[in-house]
Amino acid sequence: xATSGLLKRLATNGREELRPSGVAVQSRPSTQGRGxxxxxxxxxxxxxxxxxxxxxxxxxxxxxxxxxxxxxxxTNIMFHNHPTVxxxxxxWFILSLILVSKRYHLYGPMQLRxxxxxxxxxxxxxxxxxxxxxxxxYIVRGEVISRGVVIITVxxxxxxxxxxxxxxxxxxxxxxxxxxxxxxxxxxxxxxxxQAMRHHLDSIRHLGYSFKGYVQIPGVDSxxxxxxxxxxxxxxxxxxxxxxxxxxxxxxxxxxDAHEVTRIVTEAREAGVDFRVVPELYDGLAWNSPxxxxxxxxxxxxxxxxxxxIGLFLKRILDVFLSSVALLMLSPxxxxxxxxxxxxxxxxxxxxxDRIGKKxxxxxxxxFRTMVADxxxxxxxxxxxxxxxxxxxxxxxxxxxxxxxxxxxKYSLDELPQFLNVLRGDMSMVGPRPPIAxxxxxxxxxxxxxxxxxxxxxxxxxxxxxxxxxFDSYISLDTAYIQNWSIWLDLKILIRTLSVVAGGTGS
Length: 507
Hints:
Layout: H1 4-11, E1 16-18, E2 24-26, H2 33-62, H3 76-81, H4 83-103, H5 115-140, H6 147-177, E3 183-188, H7 192-203, E4 209-216, E5 231-234, H8 238-244, E6 249-252, H9 258-271, E7 274-277, E8 292-294, E9 297-303, H10 309-329, H11 331-344, E10 350-356, E11 362-368, H12 403-410, H13 418-424, E12 428-430, H14 437-440, E13 456-458, H15 460-464, H16 471-483, H17 487-502
Parallel strand pairs: 3-4, 3-6, 4-5, 6-7, 12-13
Antiparallel strand pairs: 1-2, 7-9, 8-9, 10-11
Helix pairs in contact: 2-6, 4-5, 5-6, 10-13
């Protein structure tokens, strides 16, 4: 295979980054960023599970809490009289569980193992950590630690970890079915391996991959009528195509010039797109290559983009919490608005429109109806009144808006139903405004950057330049938000949004 030498150099030494000149320099491993952050979350979850299991064991076996008062079993002796032994054994069990789980790759992407395999490895990791704990108790002569507590702690940890992993997997499968959190892929090469890879991923939907198309390699791939409709372009257009189709990963499934692979890996690293090689099984790779299986296919990750997993996890928690609290606290206001809309004019209470969300996914965006029932039919009559440039459309004194609709828009009350979109995961509290399909069709390739993240109820543009008619300002602010995103920036925007809404500048 033409790339075998390059693969050995790229795949067997995660610390080497090849430059086009062929000179290897030391660099931080590019394939560890997202995995490390995901692993931290899972490790923290395991620590919480172990502590919960210990509490269950102490309560169930001894009949009191860990810090309980005097009882026939005198649990407080374990902690108050021998804190070093208890805390040391607890720390050793947690450390053993983490190290064994990491050795079994349980902190890696769940696509790399099926459900039964993951459950078996979880049980094996817990029992191994339990044996290491038992050995430590024997060495330090920890007779003060109840053996019943040890056994129940290990068993409870095993059950809770298995249940947690199973529930997480089932939840992710459901999100994949709804088109959420899927990873878009482009396969380079239309040969036998590329076609087999495509059909394999399509047949195993729970892996969470969505095939977007093939990219041909000139001189290697021949015209094949079976895949002609799925070919997006040639390899020299790979990164623009990845941008256009919101690709998260690129799979190389055919032989390619070594310099071409180096160029693609470099560009993928700059664009934040993951890059994997799908080697042909008979070509043979270095024995110690870091091979990861996607379903039944071996792959070698040459680059894995940086993703702020912990930050995105906290952002989602913030979204769920704030949207739930808002819906609960504002329920009387929502009911009053529903009644007022029904009394003012005939038609539905809610206005549902198809919007383009993250990675081009279409979702139904909810708003309170602020216009007459036939507003869409009358849109063509007022196109000449548009006050915005570029692809945006805005008319301040839109004759289709009802009197109560003007009030709702002024204080942004018409957007309150979007808390449901946030709760469902279609939107976030903060992010770029969700565009309609007609706007996206007129986007330049660079404008698609704003679809890399979830759209938001509010955002940097809404609080800083909402009345600015410039489309360039609209795009630049959204791009600046994406490039500089942090939880603190979201909180600042949310605070500023309150002042904007209170000032009645939402119309």
